[in-house]
Amino acid sequence: MESTAPPPDAAGPPPGATRSTVTLHVNGVPHRLTLDHRTTALDALRNHLGLTGTKKGCDHGQCGACTVLVDGRRANSCLLLAVTLDGSALTTVEGLADAEGLHPLQTAFVERDAFQCGYCTPGQLCSAAGVLQEAADGHPCHVTPDTAQPGAPVELTAEEIRERMSGNLCRCGAYPRIVEAIGDATAHPAAPPVPHAVHGLGAVSVHERREAAS
Amino acid sequence: MSHDPQPVPPKAPGHPLGAASARREGRAKVTGAARYAAEHAPPHRVHAWPVPATVARGRITAVDTADALALPGVHAVLTHENAPRLEQAEDPAVAVLQGPAVPHRGWYVALAVADSLETARAAAEAVRVTYDAEEYDVTLTADHPDRYLPKEVNGGHPGTRERGDFDAAYAGALVTVDATYTLTALHNHPMEPHASTAWWDGGHLTVHDSSQGSTKARDDLAALFGRDRRDVTVVAEHIGGGFGSKGTLRPQAVLAAMAAQVTGRPVTLALPRREMPAVVGHRAPTLQRVRLGAGADGVLTALAHEVVTHTSTVKEFVEQAAVPARVMYTSPHSRTVHRVVALDVPSPSWMRAPGEAPGMYALESAMDELAVLLDLDPVELRLRNEPATEPDSGRPFSSRGLARALREGADRFGWRPRDPRPGVRREGDLLLGTGVAAATYPVLIFPSSAEAFAAPDGGFRIRINATDLGTGARTVLGQIAAEVLGAPEERVRVEIGRSDLPDAFLAGGSSGTGSWGWAVHKACSALKAELSRRQEPLPQEGVTVSADTREEIAAGTPYARHAFGAHFAEVQVDTVTGEIRVRRMLGMFAAGRILNPRTARSQFIGGMTMGIGMALTEHSTMDPVVGGFAERDLASYHLPVCADVHTIEAHWLDEDDPHLNPMGSKGIGEIGIVGAAAAVGNAVHHALGVRLRTLPLTPDAVLPHLP
To answer: Which residue range or ranges hold the 2Fe-2S ferredoxin-type domain (chain A) (predicted)?
Structure first.
């Protein structure tokens, strides 16, 4: 029967004008990879690390199927060149669940039937995890009332969820169930923040990185 | 929003059929463990990238692959000069790299194969193709000189049907509607681009393909490569949507198999999103003239539905948009006609509810126009035109739930009281309106075979080459088996999605559950009988029973069998920006017995959502200057997004129809889109007071008509 090949990144020419060696911390595990400069984070995950949970829908940042968390923030991994992410922490759908079981978002997606074909689902889940954090951090969106206290946690109403999730296309039309599922996870008392600790380097939070950059 | 009080409705113990069972592959899909066609990486796999034609029509005069082949890591560049020769293709659209002719822009002319995806793409870009460009015509017009009357249209329906004397009846009608509706081409755009991973092992070809039916894909690949079907295996375990565009073989499977043959390596080819509109099929544009004649009571005396559409020069595919007019309403005098023009355009194909989706947009919009003329409630108008038998065939309906769906849907939606006056409901800058439209979709059932196995430990296994492209096929087949066997669902394993399983029809025409379910039902019934006959314990190897439904389906039916439904929509039109938004939408369906309310609801709502896209955002045009579709990506072809789908509900009637299959089910995958766009368009007329007959209703189309 078919077996899945080991990561092929050892093959090919050494680092130089067309390839560089970087360390990506994916779901808490450091991976040292020598990658073609043209390789996107999405293709690095799928073709070099065998993490095919992250999907390629358009490769142009138009559909959101490739959404992952980069240092805790949502990003279209098809628009990021992997060699620019040296030292970054990536969370993919494979990293949402902990050893105990499913992330509350994953449980809610199953219970609400918030998908059909499942191809956009990993991106929806990572995007939703990002939304939970953004709302907790007080990031407003287009539909957040002007009267909202700056920086205060935003309540994720159905309208807030619909707006914040509109970068993730679902051709099966599971949107109403996706909104319900994210609502369920919001209400879940044990909804854990998505881990973005970098193993071996200590915890890196979004805020610390922002300060370090300024 | 239809917030269910509880996310998991309670299951009736002991009755798996009708239970809201969760998807069997749910956990695999939410954890990323489910692998789709491009995600199988056998050792030494390489990647392919296609080269599309850049002329609208012509012949390749030269292909220079030297620069591409010089790139480190490139294994091969396939062109029409060196690609393996294929046997005659049943579908000429998959006969790729077989000659120099370019029938349309985007037709594949070469394929680069390399160690990495990046190198394959660079190699594809380095291929230099020289063409002898020819005159071309990509523009569909209602009076195109090359239009002709096709004998048959998609689905095997006759192209033209005449009943009574339409012209005389229409001329004598008290009230008439004569309106032409225009729909642009539409694209399926499943979230998973069409992909294949193929390899040859000795003389055996294995392909992981994003296919809606791997039995048919296997047979077609075997025929193309001149092999026995036993020498080909096609696997389609998880498919990221298809909506018809993965119905039969598509070029990616043929190209990947060719490249694997040439390189001796496993090859993955995932089509670039921007190239899909040219090579995977599309819903052809339609220009639809509908003429209705009625008396003062609204009862139709004359009905004509005339459709002009395009096909490609590669093959004839005629969108059967006038066919639903043969089913829907009583009318003693009727004409339904298709005319088609073969243009230098990509080949059209199936897209969710081919025929019904565009046809019912036109017919149901025209019915609304008639209701407005007569000052009659549009629900009432439809009730007055309920036929006693199927109008075109005269056959009795096995069941026809349209009237009940209209009445009960209207009640649930809060249709009444309704002020029929258009353009009078204001809320600040917004104009509000409501609309209704009917839906119909035929009950299609095709022969399939299945195997049921009982293990000595009390477990069961069902094997059938069904396909689950997001519909929940695995889950519902397990429910059917469990129901027949009297076993808990978790004791029934379901194996689907491989061509070495018992042959089954593809996932299309909303036929899956009826066709596969019948075979599973039959196999399980036989297994149950076999088990009850046995006195002694089961042997070590268990007991296996096979069944197929060829005889049952060949026996046919004297009935006209269709699902029906009614859509209700409330819209707002922004009088400053012209933006239309659907505030709420409700679908009420009569589709036989619903076997799994959880997955069924998702299918209905998914179809309705695609209908919102058809009404408001999805738009594709042939570029008249260079050929090919202008809107090729998801930034220019707008699928509905989460914020576009506000409150949307699907409900259904309990329908007990004994003339379908042992489960009593009708198909539900497509009816959700049928009529949905008309309901939205009719609501827009009610809000705005202006009838817009060209979809989609984007702000630029609305702006000139604002008060």
So the answer is: 20-96
DSSP conformation class of B156: T
Domain B26-34+445-554 in CATH 3.30.365.10: yes
User: Chain A residue closest to B72 (CA)?
Assistant: A12
Q: What is the pLDDT of residues B334-351, one digit of tens each?
A: 999 999 999 999 999 999
B675, B570, B122: which is closest to B359 by C-alpha?
Answer: B675
Query: Residue B84, by phi and psi: left (phi above 0), alpha (psi -120 to 50) or beta?
Result: beta
A111 with A156, same domain? yes
CB A145: neighbour CB atoms within 10 A? Answer: 9
* Residue B329 binned pLDDT confidence (cut-offs 50, 70, 90): very high
pLDDT above 60 for A37: yes
Residues A208 and A180 in one domain: no
Q: Whole-angstrom Cα distance, residue A143 to residue B589?
A: 34
Provide the pLDDT for residue A138.
95
Show which of residues 157-186 on chain A sit within 8 Å of chain B, judged by CB atoms.
158, 161-163, 165-180, 184
Mutate: best of A107, A175, A184, partner B, most B CBs <10 A:
A175
Domain contains A169:
yes
Task: CATH number of the domain at A169, please.
Answer: 1.10.150.120
> Average pLDDT, stretch A180-199?
68
Mean model confidence pLDDT for chain B: 96
Closest CB to A58: pick one of B603, B606, B633: B633
On whether any CB of chain B is under 8 Å from the CB of A116, the answer is: yes
Q: Complex ipTM, two decimals? A: 0.96
Give chain B's largest Cα–Cα span: 82
| A89 — pLDDT class (breaks 50, 70, 90) | very high
d(CA A117, CA B240) in angstroms, rounded, equals 5
Same fold yes or no, B26-34+445-554 and B355-443+561-707: yes
Is the domain of A48 the same as that of A91?
yes
CB spacing of A60 vs B43 below 8 angstroms: no
Tell me what the mean pLDDT of segment B276-305 comes to.
98
- Residues of B marked active site are found at 670
Pick A176's closest partner by Cβ from B272, B641, B648.
B648
CATH 3.30.365.10 fits B355-443+561-707, yes or no: yes
In a domain, A121, yes or no: yes
